[in-house]
Design goal:
20 strands, D-tyrosyl-trna(Tyr) Deacylase, Chain: A, 11 helices, five-stranded antiparallel beta sheet, about 20% strand, alpha+beta, five-stranded mixed beta sheet, Beta-lactamase, 3 domains
C-alpha cells in the first residue's frame, strides 16, 4: 500500500510538473511575442484580452482588461446580441396607415430605412381606397419613442453631421439631406450653397472664398451651425476649389421635416384635409387598417448596422428594444436597462458596471471593459448556430469596415479576423474572433484610447504597428 501511494504521488508530481511546464511554455511565450509596449504614441492607453473561444482556458494575453473605456462602435455588438435575444425572429419596423374616425393616422415606428417614396406609396393606397373622400385631420403618430432624440454625451458640434442624425420615431430619408457648397469664385467673394428644392431645410452661408495661404495665416475653417427649425448656417472660410464640396446635413427636427414633405405629397395626390396636420396620437377610437410598409427583416438591418457601422439603425433599434421589453414607448434610458437585464437573464453576462448611453457607441459617456465585451462575443461565438450573427460582422480585407483596414488586408491576416471596429476621436477599437494558422479560434478585444499620433512619432508608434504586432503574433503563435 505504501509503495502504491508513493507511486501515485510520483505520477501526480510528474503530471503536475508537466502541466506547469506546458503553462510556462505557452503563457509567457505568447506574452513575450505580444509585447505591445512602446508601439503607441505617448499618452495612449490600451486594454487587450485574448482567450480561446472554446472551453474555460485562462487568457493567453491580458492587459488592463477590467478598465472601463469608450467602446465606440464595438458597442453595436452588444446591441446586436440584445436584439436577437429580445425581438422576435420575424421582426420588422412597421409604418402603418390607419383611419380613426374621420382622421387619417400615420403610425411611425422609428424605421431607420423609411423613405419618402415609401410614404408616397402608402398615401397612394389611401387615395385609391378612399376616392374623393377626404380626411378631417392627418396625424403623425410619434408615440413609439419618448425622451430625447440625441443621446446624452454626444458632442454638440457633431449634431449637424448625418452620422449623428437624431433618433426619432418619425424618421424619414435617414434624417439626412445632401447638399454642396461652391467656392469656385475669386478670393473674397462669397461661397454658394445648393440644396435640392424638394428638401425642406434652409441653408445659408457667410463663408467667403479664401486662398490656402489665408487659411494657414488665419486658421479660419468652415463651420456648420444647425438650428432646431431645420435651418443651418455655414460660417468661417472655405479655400478656393474647382469642384463643389459635398455636404450632409443631419435633420434637426425630423417631425417638422416629415410634416413638410407630407404636405407636398398630399397636395400632389389631391388629398385635402378639412382640418390640420397634427403631431401626436389621436384620442382613443377604433382604428381601421388601410396600408402598411415593412422594413427589411432584422438580420438585413443588423448586417448593415455591423458591416457599415450604421449609427441610425443601431440607435433606433436600441430604443425599440427598450419599448418592446417594457411594453412602453422606447427611450435611451429604458433601452439601456433592458439590454442589461436581458443579457444577464438570458446570456449570463453581467453589464451592471457598464455605462450604456446608446446602442451605437456614439456617446462619449459610454464605458465598457474589454472583459465585458469579450464575454458578449464569446456568447455569440458559442451560440452562433442559433443567433447567426457572426456572418454579419466585417471580415478583415473582405467586407464592411475591415475591407481596407490597414495592416489586416493582406495574407496571412486577410479573411482571418471577424470583428467589429470602433472609432471615435482618440479611440481605435477592434473586437471579434481570430482564426490562427493552426485553426484555433481566439476571442480578441482591443481597446485603444487617448490615441493622438504626431509627426514626431513617425510610423514606429502607430495603431497599425500595434495591431500588426497583436494579430500577427496571435496568428503565428497559436
Amino acid at each position: 500500500m505504501v509503495f502504491r501511494t508513493s507511486r501515485l504521488f510520483e505520477n501526480f508530481s510528474r503530471l503536475h510538473l508537466s502541466l506547469v511546464l506546458i503553462g510556462l511554455a505557452s503563457g509567457p511565450a505568447v506574452a513575450a511575442s505580444l509585447d505591445l509596449n512602446g508601439l503607441l504614441p505617448e499618452g495612449s492607453q490600451y486594454a487587450v484580452l485574448v482567450q480561446p473561444l472554446a472551453g474555460n482556458a485562462a487568457p493567453l494575453y491580458e492587459h488592463d482588461s477590467d478598465l472601463l473605456l469608450p467602446p465606440a462602435s464595438t458597442q453595436k455588438v452588444i446591441t446586436a446580441l440584445a436584439a436577437r435575444l429580445i425581438l422576435p425572429q420575424d421582426f420588422r419596423f412597421t409604418t402603418s396607415l390607419e383611419q380613426v374616425g374621420e382622421d387619417l393616422v400615420i403610425r411611425f415606428s422609428g424605421d431607420p430605412t423609411l423613405t419618402r417614396e415609401d410614404l408616397q406609396k402608402l398615401l397612394t393606397q389611401y387615395k385609391q381606397q378612399q376616392g374623393k373622400e377626404q380626411p378631417r385631420n392627418v396625424w403623425l403618430d410619434d408615440s413609439a419613442f419618448t425622451g430625447v432624440e440625441h443621446t446624452q454625451g454626444l458632442p454638440w458640434d457633431n449634431m449637424g453631421s448625418c452620422y449623428s442624425a437624431p433618433n426619432a420615431a418619425v424618421t424619414l430619408d435617414r434624417n439626412c439631406v445632401y447638399g454642396a457648397i461652391y467656392s469656385d469664385g475669386e478670393p473674397g467673394k462669397p461661397t454658394r450653397v445648393n440644396v435640392p428644392a424638394n428638401q425642406p431645410i434652409r441653408v445659408r452661408t457667410t463663408a467667403p472664398v479664401v486662398t490656402v495661404e489665408e487659411i494657414k495665416a488665419t486658421r479660419c475653417y468652415l463651420a456648420l451651425s444647425p438650428y432646431p427649425d431645420n435651418q443651418y448656417l455655414l460660417s468661417g472660410c472655405l479655400g478656393k476649389r474647382k469642384e463643389p464640396l459635398p455636404l450632409k446635413f443631419a435633420v434637426q427636427n425630423p417631425t417638422l421635416f416629415t410634416l413638410e414633405v407630407l404636405e407636398n405629397q398630399l397636395k400632389q395626390l389631391g388629398i385635402k384635409p378639412a382640418g390640420e396636420i397634427k403631431i401626436g396620437k389621436p384620442e382613443d377610437g377604433a382604428a381601421k387598417s388601410i396600408a402598411s410598409h415593412l422594413s427589411a427583416p432584422l438580420p438585413n438591418l443588423m448586417d448593415q448596422m455591423l458591416k457599415r457601422s450604421d449609427n441610425l439603425i443601431a440607435d433606433n433599434l436600441f430604443k425599440t428594444l427598450g419599448g418592446h421589453y417594457y411594453n412602453q414607448p422606447g427611450s435611451f434610458a429604458n433601452a439601456s436597462a433592458a439590454v442589461k437585464e436581458v443579457l444577464k437573464e438570458k446570456a449570463g453576462i453581467d453589464l451592471s458596471r457598464a455605462i450604456l448611453r446608446d446602442g451605437s457607441g456614439l456617446s462619449r459617456d459610454n464605458r465598457v471593459s474589454a472583459r465585458q465585451l469579450t464575454e458578449v462575443i464569446r456568447y455569440i461565438g458559442l451560440n452562433d448556430k442559433d443567433l447567426q450573427l457572426l456572418a454579419l460582422f466585417p471580415v478583415s480585407g473582405v467586407s464592411g469596415t475591415l475591407t481596407y483596414h490597414r495592416g489586416l488586408t493582406k495574407p496571412p491576416l486577410k479573411g482571418k479576423l471577424v470583428a467589429k471596429t470602433g472609432t471615435l476621436f482618440g479611440t481605435k477599437n477592434l473586437a471579434g474572433i481570430l482564426t490562427t494558422a493552426k485553426g484555433n479560434r481566439l476571442l480578441v478585444t482591443q481597446f485603444v484610447t487617448n490615441y493622438f499620433p504626431s509627426k514626431a512619432d513617425g510610423s514606429k508608434k502607430s495603431i497599425v504597428q500595434f495591431e500588426q504586432r497583436l494579430y500577427e503574433g496571435l496568428y503565428q503563435g497559436q
